[in-house]
């Protein structure tokens, strides 16, 4: 019998309604979940890592979680690991795990958009699907996966695209890797490449700034004055900013703050052939790095890990080719 370890890190999937408070607040214990699951011949072991909402989870906790998962997967008897997580920041933790875990065995992150106290609770079906994927030999070597709404996504590609729907996650550029039907795991393609960043700590002083039409550079200049180690800018389209942002960006790079450009569209490559001021060619000339096919939040996670792995800012470039 295959053995899967389910690590609870919190979120709606493990929250139940409290006796005196209207909303869901109390954690569901592992044994309670086992009692409700039909896990089809898979032996389950539960381990509690944390019980916090996704909005409370920290990247440093994610790195600690990655180390714990590596140790668990080193045991021959373990087929895979499932992590339950709050959906608000699930994609960031999943991507962090994908970048920092070397094991070939499946690591699957899942959650719920509705608490057990709400109509249409989706936690159990997502958890059952994640267990099935973690126990599958077909999913070895795919990196960290996210299972939600019966679909299987690569951690680098998945995004939360709806605040309330039980089909809250999608991969806008690539689509799902596969899906779960009954007891079968179906894969239609595999991730093209995996990236690994070897680090024992991460740099927490990385800011994320999103551009809006006509926005001034006040937040960018505050970040520079605060001496942050890195700044991710969610720029327009294929990598464009207003002309009045360029002096502050140049100042940041001159003082060895790493500036990474992501697209506020959340996916797609960064490039254009426009010649006007503030277009891609200006950002490239200044020395900005580009987070192709990554959302701003994922680019921030990647930059935090990269800055934790190297001493010199210029060495970060290798992870943003």
Give an overview of the whole structure:
The protein is an alpha/beta fold. It has 2 domains: 3-187, 3-Layer(aba) Sandwich (Rossmann fold), CATH 3.40.50; 206-320, Rossmann fold. 26% of the residues lie in helices and 24% in strands. It is built from 8 helices and 16 strands. It has helices spanning 30-36, 59-73, 90-100, 123-134, 218-226, 246-254, 280-286, 296-309; strands at 3-10, 15-17, 24-27, 43-52, 78-84, 107-110, 144-148, 151-154, 159-160, 169-170, 178-181, 184-187, 206-210, 230-235, 258-263, 289-290. The strands form 4 sheets. Strands 4-1-5-6-7-8-11-12 form an 8-stranded mixed β-sheet, with helices on both faces. Helix 2 (59-73) packs across helix 3 (90-100) and helix 3 (90-100) runs parallel beside helix 8. The termini are far apart.
Question: What's the CATH first level of the largest domain?
Answer: Alpha Beta
Classify the beta-strand content into a percent band.
15-25%
* Major beta sheet, strand line-up: 4-1-5-6-7-8-11-12
- Could you tell me the mean pLDDT? 91
List keywords for this structure.
single chain; 321 residues; alpha/beta; Rossmann fold; 2 domains; eight-stranded mixed beta sheet; four-stranded parallel beta sheet; 24% strand; elongated
